[in-house]
């Protein structure tokens, strides 16, 4: 098996929608430039006007049209630019999130998942949401801050190199102060992400077993545990906020120092007549306006940490990828299933079926019985190609691993999953193209016909989470009906008749035998079933 | 007067808002302290702008009259610079304090709200499913409560600042130029008007988005839980399409919310930029003395003009900030109205207050008991039976006849018509918690957590010793298996008890039941998944252990239940309540 491909790479987050991102970055830079220019130019304009006004003769020659036009242009540019930038970048980000959701789900579909589903849900919904922070809160602010700081430094240099030498260093310092938070921010983010996942588990599990916990008077304990974890999460969030607030405090102080140095140096230059007052004011106001651009940098590494943590957890999902079966042949419709000296174990189990041998041809039935814990389910899972086995397990004379078995084996597990969809949608998961008539037929075969007829919505009855609106026995038969619709040549059924009275059991069994007359049928059951032609296998 | 204006313009008096305010009340002192810090920061800003304008005005006049001497410039700086430094450093410090206070307030509110929600869900018991799946409930308790953060930590203070800051700045401006103050005042009220128009639309869109988010996370959990089944059915591609669909809807609704949110910011941005540009032109042309209505006059001197220009951006800043936070407000209102069904649930509360301690096995009598679901589907057709003290009864009937609902009613979770009497006391008069401590219940879905075997058993009996646990496991015939496991009692089980077979799980659940020494047992198909021999033995075991207890067992098979005193057959329910009168009991 080759090393699995990571589901998410930070690089692809940006390359997949490159033109949208570039446009957004450009629009953002223009917007910020407009904002800074607006303030600096306005300051220069009134100072220059005041100078001209004082030397009253010059006032009539003062060209105020051009600066006034630029000021208006900047005002409009700032507004329109910000709106367009935000729409572009968020559209790109949300599109990216959609792709990520589907990608992650597919990666999950291709893996043997032994994860908590509470945990998985956290990953799918929350972690993916965190990934849009990378472009929006890390890359864009840094690009903007870097480019605008460079422009400001250039502006100062053009006015008077001395300004650059005195105030430039603290400006650069303020720009790079957020780098100090990198290590702690990423660490805090990793803690926070895993703490939030634990918090969700601590909430979801008690919720699923709420009635029992209430009766045992243990609900309070569980909610206390959850609240403690909730508090821990909030404390981590507080530390994050504190980190960025402190960074902002330091950064603003250094920027203040830069402004003071600028004024100090400016005073010398004014005295030396190397600079005019309006231009010094423009230099100072441009710095003032840059505060706004610098501030988001303090939160950028927390956002980066969140994205990294989310990415790592998402990528863990795809670690155990199922070996691809494509390229292998599918077995012919006439089948021989052979087990020789077969042994299998559940993950970590000590017991399991040992040295089981049998041969089944198309049309034959195998009944497996045995005491609880004797390994009936384990054997069935082995036959369903879900467990590694020792001994020989062959289909048409070749080991399982040589075949593509997705369309051949049909396995009904003890825990039948009924989805929060309508009855018809649940059934059509087995056969998307099945007609209503086919659905009614299979419902009849599984003794669900009368029940479904009596539902006000009939086939459109919504079954609810874990099939809450149906009883355990009905859920199991709906799962059976769904499996029957797939028309698999080999059916492996674990306790299909649990919860059925003998008459109904007989009725469903006859329908099963009829449907599977040309295939192989293996049934694990604790009920005594009357099937004359069946082979019997008793596990001990 | 200011308060009244705020109420009429900024906060629509909708129920969601009132509810948010109620949640915030305990944390108001912190939030007002945060507000005080913000106001102080605003005053420092005015001082800072004043100092800068004085500095530059002096430089300008000096440079005009004669060359500035270095000593003059330095002397000026040494008097102004310390104050300027104080302002420049003081503002971030005050901001820091404000953030900390607001965050603490927000965290406290969210913590309390989560506790309230969990209490409400506990009151609903098995009926919690009416508020949504476990997945969407967990997203309500986590994400939707967190969606209040922006409202508490930013919007609440901001909606006061949005009045106080501009008023302070306008007052300072008025001192220098009444006309400039008027320009600011005229543009300012337009902003809230636009904001409300856009904000209401944003609130509706935001609510839709939260519903989509919750639906999407419910769908995810559902599909991910059933992933093995989907893989087996080769239906993962179809499921993936469902996921893509849900994610697509989520994106579309998010975009709608953002479009509106950004539009409201853009409007504010526009006003702010326009006013700064207008002011700069007015002041600049005024300084040149070429204003059409005041030719040759200088209406505002340079120092005042610069001061006003520096104040102007800050005049709109709180409004712009409020525009951003307005969408936090819309989000919070949407979240709180999503939470309202749970928060305000008058979910059926067991009314009783009487504590009935069962000294011995109780006697139960059920008269004309009827239960109907929320959707008016009849769950249990009228039924009467009685259980004598210490007698053991099975309930039988076709699937869907309401056997589980009957047990829920006996547990005190579900309202019913007719009567249930315990030792001649109506069940409805008993205090539910106390009543539930008196009985043992085994549900259809086993109550096994993803924890070790010993932790699962101690869920039911926290104080049981290891030896007691081993004894119990021996009684349910699990000990031989558990003993052989490398970690024994400490063996970890996966989600839904993964690692044990269906039969072993049910026996572990039975062990939980046995650990509670109660006089009344309610069992919901305890042997549905066990093989005949084990079911027989377990039924016999239940018979042995339940001697002297009153017991109701729902079971399909009577194999091994020869110790029962009575079997009650349940009638099939009619399709709807309307037809119930025509129903003929079997």
Describe it for me?
The complex is a heterodimer of chains A (540) and B (586). Chain A folds into two domains: 10-317, ABC transporter type 1, transmembrane domain (ABC transporter transmembrane region fold); 336-539, Rossmann fold, CATH 3.40.50.300. The mean pLDDT of chain A is 80. Chain A is an alpha/beta fold. In chain A, α5 packs antiparallel against α6 (161-176). The radius of gyration of chain A is 35 Å and the shape is elongated. Chain A starts with 9 loop residues before the first helix and ends with a strand. In chain A, the strands form two sheets. In chain A, strands 6-7-8-3-9 form a five-stranded parallel sheet, sandwiched between helices. A four-stranded antiparallel sheet of chain A has the order 2-1-4-5. In chain A, 61% of the residues lie in helices and 9% in strands. With 586 residues, chain B is of the alpha/beta class. Chain B has two domains: 22-336, ABC transporter transmembrane region fold (Up-down Bundle); 364-582, P-loop containing nucleotide triphosphate hydrolases (Rossmann fold), CATH 3.40.50.300. A five-stranded parallel sheet of chain B has the order 8-9-10-5-11, sandwiched between helices. A four-stranded antiparallel sheet of chain B has the order 4-3-6-7, covered by helices on one side. In chain B, a hairpin with a 2-residue loop joins β6 (417-422) and β7. The termini of chain B are far apart. Chains A and B meet through α2, α3, α4, α7 and α8 of A and α3, α4, α5, α7 and α8 of B. Chain A: The chain crosses the membrane at residues 21-38, 44-62, 138-157, 163-182, 270-291. Chain A: InterPro entries: AAA+_ATPase, ABC1_TM_dom, ABC1_TM_sf, ABC_transporter-like_ATP-bd, ABC_transporter-like_CS, P-loop_NTPase, Type_1_exporter. Chain A: Keywords: ATP-binding, Membrane, Nucleotide-binding, Transmembrane, Transmembrane helix.
């Amino acid at each position: 098996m080759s090393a699995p491909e990571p589901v998410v790479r930070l690089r692809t987050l940006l390359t997949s929608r490159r033109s949208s991102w570039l446009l957004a970055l450009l629009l953002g830079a223009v917007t910020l430039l407009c904002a800074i220019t607006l303030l600096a130019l306005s300051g220069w304009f009134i100072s220059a006007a005041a100078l001209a006004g004082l030397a009253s003769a010059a006032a009539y020659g003062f060209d105020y049209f051009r600066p006034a036009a630029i000021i208006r242009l900047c005002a409009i540019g700032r507004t329109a630019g910000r709106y367009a930038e935000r729409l572009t970048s968020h559209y790109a980000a949300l599109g990216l999130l959609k792709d990520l959701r589907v990608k992650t789900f597919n990666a999950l579909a291709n893996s043997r998942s032994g994860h908590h589903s509470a945990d998985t849900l956290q990953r799918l919904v929350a972690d993916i949401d965190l990934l849009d922070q990378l472009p929006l809160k890390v890359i864009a602010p840094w690009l903007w801050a870097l480019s605008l700081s460079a422009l400001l430094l250039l502006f100062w240099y053009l006015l008077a190199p001395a300004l650059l030498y005195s105030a430039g260093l603290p400006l650069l310092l303020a720009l790079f102060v957020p780098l100090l938070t990198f290590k702690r921010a990423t660490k805090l983010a990793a803690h926070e992400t895993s703490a939030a996942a634990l918090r969700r588990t601590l909430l979801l599990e008690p919720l699923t077993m709420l009635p029992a916990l209430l009766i045992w008077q243990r609900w309070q304990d569980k909610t206390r545990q959850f609240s403690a974890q909730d508090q821990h999460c909030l404390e981590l969030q507080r530390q994050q906020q504190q980190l960025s607030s402190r960074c902002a405090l330091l950064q603003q102080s250094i920027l203040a120092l830069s402004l003071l140095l600028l004024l100090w140096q400016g005073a010398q230059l004014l005295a030396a007549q190397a600079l005019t007052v309006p231009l010094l004011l423009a230099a100072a106001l441009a710095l003032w306006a840059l505060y706004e651009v610098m501030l988001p940098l303090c939160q950028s590494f927390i956002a980066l940490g969140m994205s990294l943590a989310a990415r790592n957890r998402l990528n863990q999902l795809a670690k155990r990828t199922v070996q691809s079966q494509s390229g292998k042949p599918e077995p012919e419709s006439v089948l021989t299933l052979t087990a020789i000296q077969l042994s299998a174990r559940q993950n970590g189990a000590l017991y399991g079926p040992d040295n089981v041998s049998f041969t089944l041809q198309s049309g034959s039935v195998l009944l497996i019985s045995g005491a609880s814990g004797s390994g009936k389910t384990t054997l069935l899972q082995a036959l369903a190609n879900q467990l590694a086995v020792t001994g020989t397990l062959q289909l048409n004379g070749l080991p399982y691993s040589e075949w593509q078995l997705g369309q051949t084996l049909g396995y009904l597990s003890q825990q039948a999953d009924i989805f929060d969809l309508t009855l018809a949608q649940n059934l059509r998961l087995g056969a998307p193209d099945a007609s209503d008539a086919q659905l009614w037929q299979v419902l009849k075969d599984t003794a669900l016909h009368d029940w479904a007829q009596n539902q006000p919505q009939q086939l459109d009855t919504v079954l609810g989470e874990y099939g809450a609106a149906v009883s355990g026995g009905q859920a199991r038969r709906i799962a059976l009906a769904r499996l029957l619709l797939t028309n698999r040549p080999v059916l492996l059924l674990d306790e299909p008749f649990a919860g059925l009275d003998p008459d109904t059991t007989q009725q469903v069994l006859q329908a099963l035998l009829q449907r599977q007359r040309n295939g192989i049928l293996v049934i694990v059951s604790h009920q005594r079933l009357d099937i004359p032609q069946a082979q019997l296998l008793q596990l001990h | 007067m200011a308060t009244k204006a705020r109420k009429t313009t900024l906060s629509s008096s909708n129920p969601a808002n009132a509810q948010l305010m109620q949640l915030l009340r305990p944390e108001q002192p912190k939030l007002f302290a945060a507000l005080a810090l913000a106001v102080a920061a605003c005053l420092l800003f005015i001082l800072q702008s004043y100092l800068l304008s004085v500095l530059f005005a002096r430089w300008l006049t000096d440079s005009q009259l004669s060359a500035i001497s270095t000593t003059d410039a330095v002397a000026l700086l040494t008097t102004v610079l310390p104050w300027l430094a104080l302002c420049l450093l003081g503002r971030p410090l005050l901001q820091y304090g404000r953030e900390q206070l607001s965050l603490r307030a927000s965290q406290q509110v969210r913590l309390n709200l989560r506790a309230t929600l969990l209490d409400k869900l506990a009151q609903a018991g098995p009926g919690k499913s009416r508020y949504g799946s476990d997945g969407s409930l967990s997203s309500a308790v986590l994400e939707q409560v967190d969606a209040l953060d922006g409202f508490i930590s930013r919007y609440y203070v901001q909606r006061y600042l949005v009045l106080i800051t501009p008023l302070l700045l306008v007052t300072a401006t008025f001192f220098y130029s009444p006309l400039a103050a008027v320009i600011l005042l005229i543009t300012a009220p337009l902003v809230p008007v636009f904001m409300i128009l856009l904000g209401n639309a944003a609130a509706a869109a935001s609510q839709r988005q939260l519903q989509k988010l919750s639906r999407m996370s419910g769908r995810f959990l559902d599909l991910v839980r059933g992933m093995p089944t989907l893989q087996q059915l080769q239906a993962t591609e179809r499921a993936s399409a469902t996921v893509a669909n849900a994610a697509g809807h989520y994106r579309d609704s998010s975009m709608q919310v953002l479009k509106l949110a950004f539009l409201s910011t853009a409007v504010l941005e526009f006003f702010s930029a326009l006013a700064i540009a207008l002011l700069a032109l007015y002041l600049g042309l005024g300084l040149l003395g070429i204003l059409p209505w005041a030719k040759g006059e200088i209406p505002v001197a340079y120092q005042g003009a610069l001061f006003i220009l520096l104040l102007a951006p800050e005049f709109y800043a709180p409004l712009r900030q409020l525009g951003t936070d307005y969408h936090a407000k819309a989000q919070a209102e949407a979240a709180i109205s999503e939470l309202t069904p749970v928060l305000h649930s008058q979910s059926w509360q067991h009314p009783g207050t009487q504590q009935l301690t069962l000294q011995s096995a109780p006697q139960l009598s059920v008269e004309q008991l009827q239960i109907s679901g929320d959707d008016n589907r009849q769950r249990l057709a009228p039924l009467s039976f009685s259980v004598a003290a210490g007698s053991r009864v099975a309930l039988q009937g076709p699937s869907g006849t309401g056997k589980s609902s009957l047990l829920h009613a006996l547990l005190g979770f579900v309202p019913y018509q007719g009567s249930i009497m315990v030792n001649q006391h109506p069940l409805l008069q008993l205090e539910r918690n106390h009543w539930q401590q008196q009985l043992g219940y085994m549900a259809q879905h086993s109550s096994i957590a993803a924890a070790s075997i010993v932790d699962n058993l101690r869920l039911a009996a926290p104080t049981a010793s290891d030896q007691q646990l081993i004894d119990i496991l021996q009684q349910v015939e699990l000990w031989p298996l558990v003993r052989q496991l490398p970690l024994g009692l400490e063996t970890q089980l996966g989600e839904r008890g993964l690692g044990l077979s269906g039969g072993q799980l049910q026996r572990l659940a039975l062990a939980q039941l046995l650990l509670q020494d109660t006089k009344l047992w309610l069992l919901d198909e305890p042997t549905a998944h066990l093989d005949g021999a084990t079911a027989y033995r377990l039924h016999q075991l239940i018979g042995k252990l339940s001697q002297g207890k009153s017991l109701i067992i729902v079971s399909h098979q009577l194999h091994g239940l020869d110790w029962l005193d009575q079997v009650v057959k349940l009638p099939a329910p009619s399709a709807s309540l309307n037809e119930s009168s025509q129903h003929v009991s079997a």
